[in-house]
Design a protein that fits this description.
Elements (H helix, E strand, L loop, with lengths): L1 E2 L5 E2 L1 E4 L3 H12 L5 E4 L10 E5 L3 E5 L1
Parallel strand pairs: 3-4
Antiparallel strand pairs: 1-2, 5-6
This protein binds flavin-adenine dinucleotide.
Flavin-adenine dinucleotide (FAD) binds next to helix 1.
Length: 63
């Protein structure tokens, strides 16, 4: 069992909330496993996939 700083215990910890980590979490959740946590160092999930919206309806896709 792995506990986080708030004392919640989970069975699985996924390190990194990029495409791989979020996909793994989704697949596990779909398989009925909801005792998990995604640990992300950044202040957002997505990792290298990142869309930016600019003025005049311009979208840049970075990753
Ligand atoms: C400019 C660019 C264009 C791309 N274009 C394409 C494309 O057209 N098609 C395509 O298939 N792929 C493309 N890619 C590649 C694709 O974005 C990556 O392969 C994919 O995002 C990798 O996902 P990942 O989850 O493996 O890693 P990452 O996205 O790198 O995610 C890793 C996550 O783990 C976190 N992390 C790392 N260490 C720790 C730690 N110790 N504790 C907590 N969190 C941690 C990071 O903050 C990050 O959020 C592109 C990439 C770039 C940069």
């Amino acid at each position: 069992m792995i506990g986080d700083r708030q004392g919640i215990q989970v069975s699985i910890a996924i390190v990194g909330g990029g495409l791989s980590g979020m996909s793994a979490a989704w697949e596990l959740y779909q398989a009925g496993i909801d005792s998990l946590v995604v640990l992300e160092a950044n202040n957002r999930v997505g990792g290298r996939t990142f869309n930016q919206f600019h003025p005049k309806d311009c979208l840049s896709r970075n990753g």
